[in-house]
Amino acid sequence: MTRLFGTNGIRGVVGQDMTASLALDVGRAAGTFFEGGRIAIGNDTRTSSPMLKAAVISGLTAGGCIVEDLGTAPSPAIQYYVKTHRVEGGVIITASHNPREYNGIKVIDPRGMEASREHEEGIERVYFRKAFRQASWDAVGRVAKVNRCNQDYLDAIVRLVDVDRIHDAGLKVVLDCGNGASCLTSPYLVRHLGCHVATLNAQPDGSFPGHPPEPREEHVGELMEMVVDSASDLGVVHDGDADRVVFVDEEGHYVHGDRSLALLAGYVVGREGGGVVVTPVSSSSCVEDMVKASGGRVLYTKVGAPLVARRMFEEGAVFGGEENGGLIFPRHQYCRDGAMGLAVVLELMATEQASLSDILSKIPKYSLVKTSVPCPAELKGRALEALASRFEGKAIDTTDGVKVTHEEGWVLARPSGTESIFRVFSEGKTQKEAERLSEETVSILDGIIESLRAG
Ligand code: MG
């Protein structure tokens, strides 16, 4: 069956893949799948979001759904609403961190988690068969506007951190909302927590005039400068739908997501007195180092935040996340949660009473090398098997691709889901070791693929 949903919902370029007719049929399919019932819907700040949302709402109400329109809100705020209001499910109109010409549709299950693959397949089946539920004139659904989604989300976050302690620390924060959904939440949160806050790009604008919506180092130069110029303690930036958060230290250095993930993993495990942390196999060893040092243990999943969230739910984990700034706090909810991550970092800094660069200097450092090896799609499975058998006797993890742990680090080779390549990640204590591990694995993989091609 052709797939409609990718790893993060339905995504594409507006007017090409993401059209009003597609959104209408997705709405009709979701309405059929949810068999009427109450559905919450919300959107990010993209220029195309109101158009796509109107089409999805039309499809949902045609199938008899009662739609609660939450307006513009961060994805985690919409997910929190779904979880706490006993609706049948949710829909988010967002393309997260993608460039401005993109948009997307994401389906949320009644627990506020991103829909499972089985769930998505149910909707896909209806979509492709066009076997839509059609309500009669007297059973067509209606739409109610809901205004408290963002405030409820912030109230819940505030209840989970030590507000007095953060207040007393009087931290100075520069917050870059990137013209995305966090404009409506994070500035109010930081101010409520008693920080001195200056904002950048804090007006919602789907043309993203400040910088592209992905919080990469090359996009946030202005934030890094402003932290230094204003002698602030912390810089903060969210992606377009504010499920991710990335930090800048007081010296204006961009903090890579694996460092903040390790920092928070250690902090949360310490606070909880142990517990399980879930993260993809591609995460840096510094995460496991910090978790072990705090008395917890790490479980690894395939790459993808929805899979991390689901595993956390099953295992009763205390924390989880990815190296791109996607942090999950199960005391709040099982999804990436940008504003929650921000609040916990403020609490951590207030507790440690040290600068962020000092706090981060305690995390072990590793070097990561990323490369790729071309491989035709039809050979990927056999190449993977052959690679695993080449490393027999070593510590191998086949959760996602093949990960081999060596004395000096690890190497992960994963077939790409979308391109005819293997992605090869290697991590070592030094750049040299990481490069050596990478070269060794690339040459073995090249040899395997060559011999498979030959015969
Ligand atoms: Mg996002």
Description:
This protein is of the alpha/beta class. 39% of the residues lie in helices and 22% in strands. The strands form four sheets. Strands 1-5-4-2-3-6 form a six-stranded mixed beta sheet, with helices on both faces. Strands 8-7-9-10-11 form a five-stranded mixed beta sheet, sandwiched between helices. A five-stranded antiparallel beta sheet has the order 16-20-19-18-17, with helices on one face. Bound molecules: magnesium ion.
Strand line-up of the largest beta sheet = 1-5-4-2-3-6
- Estimate percent helicity: 25-40%
Classify the beta-strand content into a percent band. Answer: 15-25%
| Bound ligands, named by name, code or SMILES | magnesium ion
The coarse overall form would be: globular
Head-to-tail CA distance between termini? 30 Å
Structural class: alpha/beta
Mean pLDDT rating: 96
* Rg on CA atoms, Å: 23 Å
Question: Briefly, what is this?
Answer:
With 455 residues, this protein is of the alpha/beta class. The chain is 39% helix and 22% strand.
Keywords summarizing the entry:
single chain; alpha/beta; 5-stranded mixed beta sheet; 15 helices; 39% helix; globular; binds magnesium ion
Please render the helix and strand layout as text.
Blueprint: E1 10-13, H1 20-33, E2 38-43, H2 49-62, E3 66-72, H3 75-84, E4 89-93, E5 102-108, H4 117-129, E6 143-145, H5 149-159, H6 163-169, E7 172-176, H7 186-192, E8 196-200, H8 221-229, E9 234-238, E10 245-248, E11 254-255, H9 257-272, E12 275-280, H10 285-293, E13 296-301, H11 305-315, E14 319-321, E15 327-328, H12 338-352, H13 356-360, E16 367-374, H14 380-390, E17 395-397, E18 402-406, E19 409-415, E20 421-428, H15 431-454
Parallel strand pairs: 2-3, 2-4, 3-6, 7-8, 7-9, 12-13, 12-14
Antiparallel strand pairs: 1-5, 4-5, 9-10, 10-11, 14-15, 16-20, 17-18, 18-19, 19-20
Helix pairs in contact: 1-2, 1-4, 3-5, 6-12, 9-10, 14-15
This protein binds magnesium ion.
